[in-house]
Amino acid sequence: MNIDNPNQLIDRLVAQIAPLMQDDCAFVGIHSGGVWVMEALAERLGRDLPTGTLDISFYRDDFSRIGLHPEVKPSQIPFDVENRHVLLVDDVLYTGRTVRAAMNLLFDYGRPASIRLAVLVDRGGRELPICADFAGARLELAPGQHVALLRDDAGELHLSLNQGAA
Fold this sequence. Notes:
alpha/beta, Rossmann fold, five-stranded parallel β-sheet, two-stranded antiparallel ribbon, 4 helices, about 25% helix
């Protein structure tokens, strides 16, 4: 699978998501890359759906060990989550711990009717029983490999595949 073009992966997500969208759906992106993907999805789908953002910094299960990330952003859910179908969006799905934290935070806002997960890249390596409903690409990476979504000063998205620390 070629991951050099994030826009093609977003187009693949749109093709998967569009036929299944419901009127009472909302998009929620996980900071930062998930928000970028969510914004691109919302724009391409062309529907006026509610959107929100989550920063899971305080909900991470390793918070006491690694401390606070220096760029904590506020979570913003400007709609009623109760009984709404939520599409949770992230850039890269790896261990499943970020998604678990995001769901815990989302439930602080109410009880959604359903939560489905869309990711730009599912890289395998799960530590929790979490899977993506929609993925732009599915890869199997070695333990030392990492994939990251980056956004340049012009707002263009780029994927980086590398060895070493993420």
